[in-house]
Amino acid sequence: MATAATPEAAAPKKKGKKGLITILAALVLAGAGVGGGIFLASSGMIGSTKAAEPEGKDLPKLLPKGSKPAKKEGEEGGHGGGGESAEGPKYESSYFQMEKEFTSNLKDSVHLIQVGLAVSTPYDEKVIEHLQAHELAVRSAVLMTLADTDEEQIFTPEGKKDLQRRLAKAINDVLKEKEGFGGVANVYFTNFIVQ
Predict the structure, then answer these.
(1) pLDDT of the chain along its 195 residues, tens only?
(2) Do 169 and 194 form a contact (C-beta atoms < 8 A)?
(3) Where are the beta strands (DSSP E) in 34-156?
(4) Quick one: CA dihedral 56, 67, 117, 134, positive or negative?
(5) Which of 13, 121, 149, 167 is most buried, judged by most C-beta within 10 A?
């Protein structure tokens, strides 16, 4: 009987080694999974919201009233625009005049519209730099907006104001797409011709 008890005692030990190896393998795999997940999350491959939010390191800053924006070619400091309070504007505006005029057909019309544009921003010079860097995309968006304008609309003051709002939105949409931030508060007509 002593010999019969010895093989039974040895069998559980072998089963224990297999169980121990199985448990160790499961722990190694779980550790690898957790480590891989942490790596992917920290590198931004999973669970990242950075793509939805613009990076804060290079965003334009609002210019408080009384501060002077850095003047560059085609740009003038001024008053008005964005962030107005009961005492007047809260922020200093910078103006930028687009160098070339815009000419387009009007929607469902034989008439042409030609406009010169300037924009204002209450932010620092980065918005102007973004406008200059993406001038071709901005020009295209402005021309598309002009081509989508009805003839009757541009002959009324309300229609012209609506066109200004639509142009500001089109420009901001391009800047948001390209730089993650718009920043144009108003669009101004420097000339306005319909033929």
Answers:
(1) 555 555 555 555 556 688 888 888 888 888 888 888 787 777 666 765 544 444 555 777 777 776 665 554 444 444 444 444 445 568 889 999 999 999 999 999 999 999 999 999 999 899 999 999 999 999 999 999 999 999 999 999 999 999 999 999 999 999 999 999 999 999 999 999 999
(2) no
(3) 75-78, 84-85, 88-89, 93-97, 102-105, 112-121
(4) negative
(5) 121
Spatial contact of 62 and 91, defined as CB atoms under 8 Å apart:
yes
Counting DSSP H helices and E strands in the chain, the numbers are 4, 7
| Torsion angle (degrees, nearest 10) of CA 21, 25, 26, 32 | 160
Contacts of 131 (CB under 8 A, 6+ apart): 96, 119, 138, 171, 175, 184
Two structure tokens written together for 162: 């609506």
Q: Cα torsion at 18, 22, 27, 32 (round to 10°)?
A: 130
Give residue limits of the domains in the chain.
Answer: 1-53, 56-194
**Answer CATH for 56-194 from 3.40.50.2000, 3.30.479.30, 3.40.50.300, 3.40.50.920:** 3.30.479.30
Phi, psi torsion values for 189, nearest 5 degrees? -90, 125
pTM: 0.60
Dihedral over alpha carbons 63, 64, 65, 70 (to 10 degrees) = -30
